[in-house]
Design goal:
The protein has 88 residues and is mainly alpha-helical. The protein is built from five helices and no strands.
C-alpha cells in the first residue's frame, strides 16, 4: 500500500476539515465492501502464485516426488504438500 498526500486528491475544504481531527498522521480509508481487493490482486502476484501452484500439481501428477518438487521450487516439503492436498 502506498500513501497519498491528501492535498493531491481531496478538495481543500475537505483537507481542512480533516485537519481538525488529525494532522501529520496516517489514516486508513477502507474500501467499500464490493470494491475490496484481495492480497496480490493489484500487483498480479496472486496470479503468479496460482500459476506456480498449478505447475507444482502437474509435476506431482507426472510422478515427481514431493522432495524433488520442493528442491526445484525452493519450498519446504510441508509447503508442497499443502499446495498439492489443498488443490487436488
Amino acid at each position: 500500500m502506498r500513501y497519498i498526500n491528501a492535498n493531491e486528491i481531496l478538495p481543500k475544504d475537505l483537507v481542512e476539515k480533516l485537519q481538525h481531527f488529525v494532522q501529520g498522521e496516517y489514516i486508513y480509508v477502507p474500501a467499500l465492501k464490493d470494491q475490496h481487493k484481495h492480497w496480490g490482486e493489484l500487483s498480479g502476484f496472486r496470479e503468479e502464485i496460482d500459476r506456480r501452484n498449478v505447475e507444482i500439481i502437474k509435476a506431482y501428477m507426472s510422478g515427481n516426488t514431493i522432495q524433488e518438487i520442493a528442491d526445484a521450487y525452493y519450498l519446504s516439503v510441508y509447503a508442497i504438500r499443502k499446495i498439492i492436498y489443498n488443490k487436488s
